[in-house]
Fold Cytochrome P450.
Amino acid sequence: MHEKYGPIVRINPHEIHVYDSTWLDTLYTGPAYGKRDKYPPTAYMTGTPRGIFGTVSHDLHRLRRSAINPLFSKSGAAAAVPMIYEHTEKLFTRMKSQITRNGFTEMRANFLAFTTDNVSLYSTGKSRDLLDDEYLADEWKMSIGKLAEWTLIGRHFSWVIPTVLEMPMALIRLILPEFSRIDMRELASYYVQTTSNTENPKSKSIGSTNVFRMILSNEQMPPSEKVTNRISHEGVVAIAAGGETTARAFTVALFFILSDKGTIQEKLKKELEQVMPDPYSRPSLKELESLPWLSAIIKESLRIMALPTTRFPLVSPSEPLRYQEWVIPAGTPVSMTLRDVLLDTKIYKEPFDFQPQRWLSTNPDLDKLNKYHVPFGRGNRMCIGVNLAYAELYVGLACIFRRLELELHDTTRERDIDIARDCFIGEPSPSTKGWPKLDVLVFDIFYDNYDLNTAHHKVDLPVLLVDYGKASSVVRKTSHEFSEIVNVHVATQHNYHGWNAKPPYFEDQTGHNPPKYENPRDATML
Ligand code: HEM
């Protein structure tokens, strides 16, 4: 429509859309430059009308946001760094275990588990512990995927998702089991327990100053703002908004770094060796932020993924807005699309090419590029989690590329990375086989040209038998039996063919003294 009718178009009976990056600061303005209400159908579409994302009124949004802003400050995010390092260790353990079992690791669920554990512990004081439980992590991935698909319905019928999320749990489990995991009541009851218990042993740990405590201790807020069924929405919105988004930035960064190992990865690794001479060291956020290539890679990944595909309509409630010669009457919903800005050819040369070097200080156009770098939005409603997201990306990518040697496995840009569908945030084509799958070349477990999945199907047992040791001595199999077993390692496959194996599953992480079995059948008894 913009190609046909120009930069300002009435795209439906209610809404005007502007396709002109230079107008960004007029619409998505800061609090000092005019009021902006949110357009209700957009506010409600993710199902949390009482959290900041779902708050329509400008003034109420300011009040709600100011109560929790300090938690998400730059210094707040820096305090989260030790937690992020701890979660990185768990992420690596998960990756190792999957490679042992499957021969590769699929990173979408893994990164989602990582970012969701970070944001949930940080924002609500309670981790979802997805990195401790692969089964739960997969279920959570399905729930978030389902929520994304439902935003399409929510866009047109904005009451649907909030209504579903408030239905009796037994009914939700029956009709939409995926939604039952995004349980606001569970969060709310947790907050009641922890906030009423001043002796809480977690009170000095990360997450103790969580969104709930900040709201409850805020003196500007009336009691009606502090009731459980309002503040639980703040917890849910942080977890839902902060998990998938940051996870996607990781997958995009990983894909593009590994697609150009000769230049990009090499420069990154060299830089990391300087700041992390010991691969297991834990540099501060400030040290990591001083690395030009790491910083440039993160910025370029956030730009090129251009994740928010939805429009973000706002309403100027009392002042008309002006675009060139047009006057937009007060009260009219007007939207722009961040993706248009992030991929604007007038700003970024070859916007679909991954070029981290455009963010280096040697680029004379850097100020202009920075001005339009809006993956987190702009103005009053800009992402509250921006500092946390950056901290996760700096720490996570530094550890990954300092400690592991990775290869892409059966991943293509067109099928698995590029966005093909608008589900509020962008989703790749339905034919995707998942996001970057990795072979890991240097871990302490090696494997060879050995298709564990196939073996798994053939033996039809919910266990995989994997040898530790060198690639040449990987367990060999015949069609139905393993012919030879040396130093067996056992890992169950969850929920395989109805075999509902629950963690904890048996695993020897050391790789040095794995259990030995007389024959494979003994192993299956586990
Ligand atoms: C790469 C990661 C992320 C991206 C690309 C991203 C993107 C965005 C964008 C574009 C908005 C603005 C929506 C609007 O204009 O209405 C937003 C809002 C928001 N984001 Fe993020 N986000 C990310 C990470 C996070 C994290 C880690 C959190 C954790 C708390 C978070 C929590 C929120 C919340 C609560 C809002 C609503 C803010 C408000 O309405 O005042 N996001 N995000």
In short: Residues 196-204, 439-526 have pLDDT under 50 and may be disordered. The chain has two domains: 1-427, 438-525.
